[in-house]
Fold:
Amino acid sequence: MRKLVLMMSVSLDGYMEGPNREIDWHLVDDELHTHFNDVLRDMGVFLEGRVTYELMDAYWPTADRDPDTPRPVADFAEIWRNKPKLVYSRTLRHGDRHTTIVREVVARDIEALKAQDGGDLVVGGAELAAEFMRHDLVDEYRVYVHPVLLGAGKRLFPAADTAAPTALRLVETRTFGNGVVLLRHERPRHDRP
Structure:
């Protein structure tokens, strides 16, 4: 069974973007970008919200056309361009040739997608990630903690609707040369559908 993976960068104080939606504080060097490529290359489907999709679509389809583009950036351009994408939006009308527009998150549809063969599903975008968490669909959390304090912005983990804790198991940590730390947690097997 495929897993639904939440993969997101955060500041040390838990913000995934600054108060004006800025993410220029992300420390993505060649080492970290290559790691992202290695992880995302094996994913089966990218699940994105409209805002994330539009940001990605504005840059990545042609990011590798410049011969001076760094190798990790060019590699990711190809990965993103060719990866199947489900974009959750009530307003978006069309996407690229590998994009399917979905109007709302339906838990049973995601469970059916997870039951199919292929690579794992990776979710991108704060609002969509929060929706998947509300539906208790996330199986793995890959949180990349950047050594910066923002003090304000949008938190990765919004206030929960319930007081019930979600038990997780730490399965990997990794420190990158730029100071970013990966904390990878999974839901315990007995806690998954």
Remarks:
- The longest strand covers residues 4-11.
